[in-house]
Amino acid sequence: MTDGTTSVPTYVYVTYIRASAEQVWQALTDADLTARYWGHANISDWQPGSAWEHRRVDGSGAVDVVGEVIKAEPPACLVITFEDTPDAEAPREPSVVTFLVEPHQDIVRLTVTHENLPNQEMLHGISRGWPAVLANLKSLLETGDVLPQAPWEMSPGHA
């Protein structure tokens, strides 16, 4: 998606989860929980200005994404930078991810906005990635378990 005034793509995904805002916040910020539904532990103290890293839990310890916490207002809003090429020779401005957690009675609307994407290739990748990760998060919070297969391992659907 683009807003028509800029060539920088933005991606927005909205899902509804039967959980409290506090449960969703914990699922976004607890390294053990992110490891369960994402296959990566998101590690930080989640304070504005702090670093965060997206570390694989496959035994390699590799860090695939790094960034900085821009804003943390538990349990409502988390804003982070998202740098998926931290070791690149030509560094680029990181993209920005905003998690907006809005409670309504027994459910939460979780809106993930990923902005300042550097190119269409990254837009394509996250357009497959965010729905898979958030489906796994939703399943974990609603049933106590993740999906039986990693949804990001599915082959792309028909366009």
Automatic annotation (TrEMBL):
Recorded superkingdom: Bacteria
UniProt-listed InterPro entries: ASHA1/2-like_C, START-like_dom_sf
TM regions (residue ranges): none
SUPFAM superfamilies in alphabetical order: Bet v1-like (SSF55961)
Residue ranges occupied by any Activator of Hsp90 ATPase homologue 1/2-like C-terminal domain in the UniProt entry: 19-142
Family statement: Belongs to the AHA1 family.
Protein name listed in UniProt: SRPBCC family protein
Species, as recorded: Streptomyces lutosisoli
